[in-house]
Design brief:
By secondary structure, the protein is α/β, with parallel strands linked by helices. Helices cover 42% and strands 13% of the residues. The protein contains six helices and five strands, in the order βαβαβαβαβαα. The protein has helices at residues 21-33, 62-72, 89-104, 118-130, 152-175, 179-189, and strands spanning 5-8, 38-42, 80-83, 108-114, 139-145. α3 (89-104) packs across α4 and α4 (118-130) packs parallel to α5 (152-175).
Length: 210
C-alpha cells in the first residue's frame, strides 16, 4: 500500500543526535514502508529537558536526527520532511497537519510509532485529523514498531502511563471540537506552548517524557 505521506512521531534524541532504540525502530519501520511517498519526521524535542547540542552549539531536534537516520537507511533527501515545532504527541499531530498535510493536500497517511505508544497516538491523531475535516477526509493507517530497548518493568510502566494519559485526555478532547479551539488551548493553556510558561506541571498527561 502506498500513502501520500508516512508520519513518524518523535521518540527522543540522545547526545550526538543518536536515536534511542525505540525511536530508531520507528524510523526503521517507516523506511521499510517507503514506496516513494514523503516521510515526515515529527518533534522538536521535549519540554522536560534541554536538547542535545551539536558541535557548533546548536540544538539537535528530534525530527532532524530522525531525518538523518532515514537518509542513512537509503531514503532520498527530497522525500524527507521535518517538523520542529512540537514537544508532545498532541503537538506532533497538530503541527503535522497545519504545517504539512493540510497545505500539501496529503490525505492518505501512515502513522508509525512504538507499540507501547500506539494507543495514545491513534486516539490523538484520529481526533486531530478529524477536526474541521469537511470534504478533506483523512485516511489514517497505523503501524506499531517494536518496543526496542524496553522490557520488563520499564515497558509495563510505559504502557500504564499511556493508558492513564488516554483516559485523562478524553475530557479535554471532548471539549475541543475544531481547530480554532485546539489552537487556542495549545497556545494559551498547554504548558509546552503557552507564552511565559515552562513545564509548570511536570506530571501532566499532556506531554511526553521521552
Amino acid at each position: 500500500m502506498r500513502f501520500d505521506a508516512i508520519l513518524i512521531p518523535g521518540g527522543g534524541v540522545r547526545p550526538g543526535g543518536v536515536l534511542p532504540p525505540w525511536a530508531d525502530a520507528r524510523v526503521s519501520l517507516a523506511a521499510s514502508l517507503y514506496q516513494g511517498e514523503y516521510l515526515i519526521a515529527l518533534s522538536g524535542g521535549t519540554p522536560h529537558r534541554p536538547p542535545p547540542l551539536d558541535e557548533a552549539g546548536f540544538p539537535i531536534f528530534e525530527s532532524v536526527a530522525a531525518a538523518r537516520r532515514l537518509r542513512e537507511l537509503g531514503i532520498p533527501q527530497n522525500r524527507i520532511l521535518t517538523e520542529t515545532a512540537s514537544y508532545d504527541t498532541i503537538g506532533n499531530a497538530y503541527f503535522a497537519r497545519v504545517i504539512h498535510t493540510d497545505p500539501a493536500g496529503f490525505r492518505s497517511l501512515a502513522v508509525v510509532t512504538s507499540e507501547f505508544h500506539m494507543p495514545r497516538v491513534e486516539r490523538i491523531f484520529q481526533w486531530v485529523f478529524a477536526l474541521d475535516a469537511g470534504e478533506r477526509t483523512y485516511q489514517l493507517t497505523f503501524f506499531p514498531a517494536q518496543n526496542a530497548g524496553l522490557n520488563g518493568d520499564t515497558l509495563a510502566l510505559r504502557r500504564q502511563k499511556e493508558r492513564d494519559s488516554v483516559e485523562q485526555l478524553e475530557l479535554t478532547m471532548a471539549s475541543l471540537r475544531d481547530l480554532k479551539s485546539l489552537q487556542n488551548w495549545l497556545f494559551l493553556h498547554h504548558s509546552a506552548y503557552a507564552a511565559g510558561r515552562r513545564d509548570p506541571f511536570p506530571n501532566s498527561p499532556f506531554h511526553d517524557t521521552y
